[in-house]
Amino acid sequence: MPNFCAAPNCTRKSTQSDLAFFRFPRDPVRCQRWVENCRRADLEDKTPDQLNKHYRLCAKHFETSMICRSSPYRTVLRDNAVPTIFDLTSHLNNPHSRHRKRIKELSEDEIRTLKQQKSIAPANIR
């Protein structure tokens, strides 16, 4: 099963090239930095374990200094690696982007409201 890059506006998948894909880290602090840098609001409510199991970022989103090339067989990230290279504007020039799901930047108030709604929702189901 191919891996797809979770970065916004990135369409790379593992079957297209020999490009490395990296799981989100299980460390909560580092994982949070990955999510923040991706700017995908839909990943904010996922646990580090969920992100590690289901989401990947391709090597194009990491500075070359963050990638360890000590092994000829595997591409490994440094322990402190955080993705910093993202194309957050290509959708503006792409006429096909209107058919893709848009990622909305949420304000602090909107995030707080969504979190409150999610914590109240299970009580309403009973």
UniProtKB/TrEMBL annotation:
Pfam families: THAP (PF05485). The keyword Metal-binding applies. Keywords: DNA-binding, Metal-binding, Zinc, Zinc-finger. Residues 1-86 form the THAP-type domain. GO terms for molecular function: DNA binding; zinc ion binding. The keyword Transmembrane helix does not apply. This is THAP-type domain-containing protein. The lineage of its organism: Eukaryota, Metazoa, Chordata, Craniata, Vertebrata.
